[in-house]
From TrEMBL, chain A:
Organism: Nocardioides mangrovicus
TM stretches of this protein: 15-35, 55-76, 88-109, 130-152, 158-179, 191-209, 247-267, 297-318, 346-373, 394-416, 422-444, 451-471, 491-513, 548-565
Single GO cellular component term: plasma membrane
Keyword Transmembrane: yes
The protein's name: Na+/galactose cotransporter
Membrane topology (UniProt): Multi-pass membrane protein
Chief localisation class: membrane
Keywords: Membrane, Transmembrane, Transmembrane helix
Family assignment from sequence similarity: Belongs to the sodium:solute symporter (SSF) (TC 2.A.21) family.
Subcellular localization: Membrane
Example GO molecular function: D-glucose:sodium symporter activity
Gene3D superfamilies (UniProt xref): Sodium/glucose cotransporter
TrEMBL record, chain B:
Domain of life assignment: Bacteria
Name recorded for this polypeptide: Uncharacterized protein
Residues spanning the membrane: 12-33, 53-72
Originating species: Nocardioides mangrovicus
Keywords: Membrane, Transmembrane, Transmembrane helix
């Protein structure tokens, strides 16, 4: 992701804007300080997570993902491709979140693991665990660096600060509020961030829509610009996938983006799952992603629509769309909208929203890294059997170290942006086989520990091979043996990773020894008594507390949305 | 009524109070900017309508609803439950 340095995007902020931004930061840091002091047992009670209502963990769940890639990247996709971008939400994220809540969360919560890699260790033993924990920890450092870079970059572009100053200030703020209050304060802040982001983007969308004459006017203008059908209907999305054959394009979207990439991301990514694990009961843990799915299905309207509106309203973006050879960076679309439509005041709110979003992303990466580093790597392999306090302080040092590394990564990113993009693509490939391994491991008791790690490794390799054979996916590393490029290539690579993982796991299981069944209770469906997935203390759940009922409603709603924008 | 001695509302620490406070302050600043401010965008054009004013009012209404919800259905903190939980050891992940 590359943001322009053009001074054209320098926003004319005045003191009112700075006041709004300052108020927001006082709140963010204030929550950290109060959580630190923990003078109030009330706050303690809240922050321990045990009384967090499901709507809070649900909002934190999507807020942790509402970072730079989501807001800037999806509005850029909206500007460039239009409506097909909704697939990231309605075929991708939402079904995956519902699936996580209904099918996978009982295993995570019920087995009492502290992290997703820890589930891997209990089910498949140390080798698969190490592969998972290490790749996850490294990926989090990298992504934290990218989020930090984007955060600093946006401060540089719109406020005119030097990049290195913004880098350090931004890192210090994130460090302050993650170390002060820990995961719990992060969750608290994420809920706040969600509302700030919506308060910034929803008015921007409404003002923009109003200016182009409503959705009808937007459609007319996009059609007039000559991009009608492909940009205004979600299927077959050939412009998004860059796969010309419509049938293959649909298959790529449903299986590549939806089933493998999104399910892989949402169901095995500890950054997300960690939020739900802070719930007070198994059904609350299940409800967190399901409740999060409801606002999530409406996020496209406030991130993709502003991008689409920018495509007809902002001359620079419209010109770039008409000229396919232009090197215009669509990631700036949202900033152009903010520049052109918002007066001082709303401008400050919008900047606060963007900063909130980028910090949310980085803070989530860092807190997940901290847990995986201190429990999955340090406690499991380096220094065992120390008291809890020891690992808490290891966690604090890990957070500090991660922030320093993130500053380094961000500096590197500012010099070699393409390499960072490719690395990010590469780490995306770790998620696809992970989903295959988890789902097989949860439902197939015979699957062996050796199959666990060989499946993961070969699946990841398959994704890399497909990308190397494709065009441009990994820059000059890609040889262009077949003409797959862009998003489509990522979908196919993910699909290959999934299939190879399943095949290798099955074959290896045939020739190696499984774990004894007694060790698999709570980890494999058929070996777990139904009571383990049920909290007796919860009493009888009303219909709106039942995860399956809620998920059913969510599924119907997302299908309706899919049909409306067919 | 001894069992109620250890129970009290979360008061200012309710997350809804935080949300209401931030959105309320944002709302006040925006409404004032809408009334007294210039309503000009960075590129020098007049913004359509008066976004500061109506967004500010919307945020104030939202803040009022949030705070109303927090007051109508307060979160109850049970100190005994809290103490019991702490004896069981720190929550590990959940």
């Amino acid at each position: 992701m590359v943001l322009a340095t053009e001074s054209a995007l320098r926003l004319g902020t005045n003191w009112v804007d700075y006041l709004l931004i300052a108020i927001y930061f006082v709140f963010v840091l204030g929550i950290g300080v109060m959580a630190r002091r923990a003078v109030s047992s009330s706050l303690d009670f809240f922050l321990s997570g045990r009384s967090l209502p499901a709507w809070v963990t649900g909002l934190a769940f999507i807020s942790a993902n509402l970072g730079a890639v989501e807001i800037v990247g999806m509005s850029a996709n909206g500007a460039q491709y239009g409506i097909p971008t909704v697939h990231y939400f309605w075929i991708g994220a939402v079904p995956a979140m519902l699936f996580l809540g209904v099918v996978m969360m009982p295993f995570y919560y019920g087995s009492k693991v502290r992290s997703v890699p820890e589930f891997m260790r209990m089910r498949f033993g140390p080798t698969a665990h190490l592969v998972n924990a290490l790749s996850f920890a490294i990926a989090q450092l990298l992504i934290a660096g990218i989020n930090l870079f984007l955060l600093a970059k946006i401060v540089e572009v719109i406020l005119g600060w030097q990049l290195w100053v913004s880098l350090i200030v931004a890192a210090l703020i994130v460090l302050a509020y993650t170390t002060l209050g820990g995961l719990s304060a992060a969750i608290y802040n994420e809920v706040l961030q969600f509302f700030v982001i919506v308060a910034a983007l929803l008015p921007l969308t409404i003002i923009g829509l109003n200016k182009v004459g409503g959705y009808g006017g937007l459609k007319d203008k996009i059609t007039a610009a000559g991009n009608g059908h492909a940009q205004l209907s979600s299927w077959p999305g050939t412009n998004l996938t860059a796969i010309d054959n419509p049938v293959l394009s649909v298959l790529g979207l449903v299986f590549g983006l939806g089933f493998v990439l999104s399910f892989g991301y949402w169901t095995t990514n500890f950054v997300e799952v960690q939020r739900a694990m802070a719930s007070k009961s198994i059904s609350a843990a299940q409800r967190a992603p399901i409740i999060g799915a409801f606002p999530k299905m409406f996020i496209p309207f406030i991130v993709i629509f502003p991008g689409m509106i920018a495509g007809v309203l902002v001359s620079a973006v419209a010109k770039a769309k008409a000229d396919s050879g232009s090197s215009f960076d669509f990631n700036n679309s949202l900033l152009y909208m903010i520049r052109d439509l918002l007066p001082n005041g709303m401008l400050g709110l919008a900047i606060a929203g963007l900063l909130a979003s980028f910090m949310a992303g980085m803070a989530a990466n860092i807190s997940a890294f901290n847990t995986v580093f201190s429990y999955d790597l340090w406690q499991t392999y380096v220094v065992k059997d120390k008291p809890d306090g020891y690992y808490l302080s290891v966690g604090r040092w890990a957070t500090l170290a991660a922030t320093v590394v993130a500053i380094g990564t961000a500096t590197f990113a500012s010099q070699y942006q393409n390499i960072m993009n490719y690395l990010q693509t590469l780490f995306g490939f770790f998620n696809a086989p992970l989903f295959a391994t988890f789902i097989l491991g949860m439902f197939w008791k015979k699957m062996t520990p050796t199959a666990g790690w060989t499946g993961l490794v070969s699946g990841t390799l398959a994704a890399i091979v497909v990308s190397v054979l494709g065009t441009d996916v990994l820059g000059s590393l890609s040889t262009g043996v077949w003409s797959l490029s862009g998003q489509g290539a990522s979908f196919v690579a993910a699909l290959a990773a999934f299939i190879v993982d399943v095949v290798v796991s099955v074959v290896v299981t045939m020739v190696t020894a499984p774990k004894p069944e007694s060790e698999l209770r709570g980890l494999v469906y058929s070996l777990t008594p139904k009571e383990d997935f049920h909290d007796d203390n919860e009493g009888v759940l009303t219909w709106y507390q039942k995860p399956t009922v809620l998920a059913g409603i969510g599924a119907v709603m997302v299908i309706v949305l899919n049909i409306i924008f067919w | 009524m001894s069992e109620h001695d250890n129970r009290h509302t979360a008061g200012a620490f309710d997350v809804r109070t935080f949300i209401a406070a931030l959105m309320g302050v944002f709302g006040v600043v925006l409404v004032l900017t809408g009334i007294f401010g210039g309503n000009e965008t960075t590129i020098g054009t007049k913004a359509d309508g008066n976004p500061n004013l109506w967004v500010g009012i919307a945020l104030l209404v939202f803040a009022a609803v949030m705070q109303g919800w927090a007051m109508a259905r307060p979160t109850i903190v049970d100190e005994e439950q809290l103490a019991r939980d702490e004896q069981e050891g720190p929550p590990a992940g959940h």
